[in-house]
Amino acid sequence: MKALLSFFLVLFIGAVQGQTVTGLWKTIDDDTGVEKSIVEIYQQDGKIYGKVKEILNKDRADVVCDRCDGDKRNQPVQGMVIIEGMEKDGNQYSGGTILDPEKGKQYKCKLWVDEDNPNILNVRGYIAFLYRTQYWKRVE
Question: Residues in domain DUF2147 (predicted)?
Fold first, then answer.
């Protein structure tokens, strides 16, 4: 009986962890389908943040955000926090921002794990009613 209970507990914990936005995610360019980077999404002070851990194109590993404003201008993209201040809102996170380092633009953001595939993260950046959604893959 204990073994059966332990088995179901492990399954439950795995299902709950599979639904979290935290962890490592591989970014995919929504226009080209090219894998671009690994972003670590983490919780800090009750909010969600995301940092570029690795740029996958080794020729661009040292790229800086030359189009960014403020303290991120001319800073390395690798190691940069690009998702900031997200708060849980039902099954998604919102209320924060995402930075597109290639364009140097910051957008309002929503994040949610795909309910049919917990290894896919929906990442939506938007201005007013215009938006763009990317689908990032969980790194095992």
Answer: 23-138
Asked if pLDDT for residue 128 goes beyond 70, the answer is yes
Q: State the CATH number of the domain containing residue 20.
A: 2.40.128.520
Q: What is the structure's pLDDT at 30?
A: 83
77, 69 contact by CB (below 8 A):
no
Q: What's 73-119 look like in SS3?
A: CCCECCCCEEEEEEEEECCEEEEEEEEECCCCEEEEEEEEECCCCCC
Q: What range does the domain containing 10 cover?
A: 2-138
In the block, residue with structure tokens 């914990």: 13
pTM for the model stands at 0.85
Count of domains for the chain: 1
Is residue 5 packed enough to be buried (19+ CB in 10 Å), middle (13-18) or exposed (0-12)? Answer: exposed
